[in-house]
Each structure stands twice: as C-alpha cells, then as structure tokens.
Amino acid sequence: MFDGVAPRYDLLNHVLSGNMDTLWRARTVKLLAGEIAAPGTVVVDLCCGSGDLMLALAKRRGATVFGTDFCHPMLLEASRKSATRSAATPLFEADALNLPLAADSANVLSVAFGFRNLANYERGLREMCRVLKPGGTAAILEFSTPPNRAFRAFYDFYSLRVLPRIGALLSGQDAADAYRYLPESVRRFPDADTLAMLMRQCGFTNVRYHRMTFGIVALHIGVKSPHASK
Ligand SMILES: C[S@@+](CC[C@H](N)C(=O)[O-])C[C@H]1O[C@@H](n2cnc3c(N)ncnc32)[C@H](O)[C@@H]1O
User: Fold this and answer.
1) 69 lines ligand 1 (CB under 6 A)
2) How far is ligand 1, taken at its centre, from the CA of residue 45, in Å?
3) What is the predicted pLDDT for the residue at 179?
4) Is the CB of 41 under 6 A from ligand 1?
5) Taking the model in full, what pTM does it have?
6) Which ranges of the chain does DSSP label H, i.e. alpha helix?
7) Which of 70, 72, 161, 188 has the greatest number of C-beta atoms within 10 Å?
8) Ranges of each domain in the chain
9) In whole numbers, what is the pLDDT of the chain averaged over residues?
10) What is the rounded distance in angstroms from the CA atom of residue 221 to the CA atom of residue 137?
C-alpha cells in the first residue's frame, strides 16, 4: 500500500493535516531533546517513511540518527531528502517486527504514524524493548481518539467523509485505498490509556503521553525497564 503512496506522501500529509504534521513532529523532537542531545547517542527512527521525523531529529546536534522502513520507495524518498539537506542519516530496509539490530543497542527508538500499521502491536513493542538499551527511550507518535465528544464528531466527519476524497483526488485511484484505510485504522487503534497500558505490559516503565491538537494525535514515551525480559 505504501509503495503507491510514496511519491505524493509528503504533499498529502501536509494538505490533509493543514500542515499540523510538521508541528507534531517538531513537538516530538522538542520533548525528546534531553534524550538525543549527547554525542554518541544512537537513535533509530522506525517506519521512517519519507524521513520527516528522522530528519527533524537529525537537525539537533548530538545523536546519530538512523532511519528504517520496509517500503523501498519510501526509503528512496527519504534518501533523496536526506541528500538534499546534507543530513547524515543512514537508512536500512527492515520490518519493524523483526529488526536486524542487536539486543540492547539503541538509546532511542522513535516511530511516527507507523506503529498503527504494525500487524501486531505487542510484538512491535517487545521488539522495540529488545533493541533498546536498558533505560533507553521509546517514542510513539500516532493518531489517537480525541477525548472531547463534540470534537470527535467533527473529526469523524472529516476523517471518514472528507479526507478519503481529498486523498483520492491528490494521490490518484491507485493510492486511494490508503486514504480509506487511514481513518479505519485510526478507529481500530487503541486509545491513549490503552496504548500506555500495553507499553507497560511489554516492558516499559515511566510511560506517559502528550496529547496534541485536541487529542487527534498523542506522543507516548516510555523507558525500557531494567527488568524487561529479553
Ligand atoms: C504513514 S507512514 C509514516 C512515515 C513517517 N514516519 C512519517 O512520519 O511521515 C507509515 C510507514 O510505516 C511503514 N511500515 C508499516 N509497517 C511497517 C513494518 N512492519 N516495518 C517497517 N515499516 C513499516 C510503511 O512502509 C510507511 O512508510
């Protein structure tokens, strides 16, 4: 599905979110500033897609930021953008459920709008936990359920009726399925408290979340517990 979306992915992100996606990623980088500041810090941006979060993280001096995704056309897009901005962000193709990374090897794992697409959330969290160093940080930026009912009704109307039409118009019929899938997958995705609970069950401690834009989006942050099972 993401193969077909890749060429127009950035444009659609910005149009459909009214450019708020840029602010959501910027806030994520700000909230992770303490974790990514030290030179030698290893950050891996999972499901990096066309690389927007990866590049925003790499703008801060300090950490070495890697990007990974299992969709080749998305990685090509990320690589092109990385070269344009002279960013040193190595990329590799991999499934986030089965990362080719050693246990306890990364300081920070980030994922923006990719976690929801994983076939198994628990497996995804356990894999993140395996790869993180004890005390390392996982950051999941993802769509969520707005807690206010009135706002949720407006948001449902936009995401179920308006968004798929704009998506089909701008991306062409080949990629239209992706923009029908998007609101459906958001509705199926656990709400903020449930995701936080799942993170705790999978070996994370000090789990908290930050809602953004009336709760359309939430950033979950958790620390790999020193007692997390391998
Ligand atoms: C909606 S895009 C998000 C891209 C980017 N992180 C961003 O913020 O714009 C979701 C990405 O997740 C990737 N993805 C989904 N499931 C994956 C998996 N199991 N392993 C690796 N990448 C995956 C897709 O290929 C796609 O590029």
Assistant:
1) yes
2) 10
3) 73
4) no
5) 0.94
6) 2-5, 9-16, 20-31, 33-36, 52-59, 72-84, 121-131, 149-157, 163-171, 173-188, 192-201
7) 70
8) 20-145+191-224
9) 92
10) 7
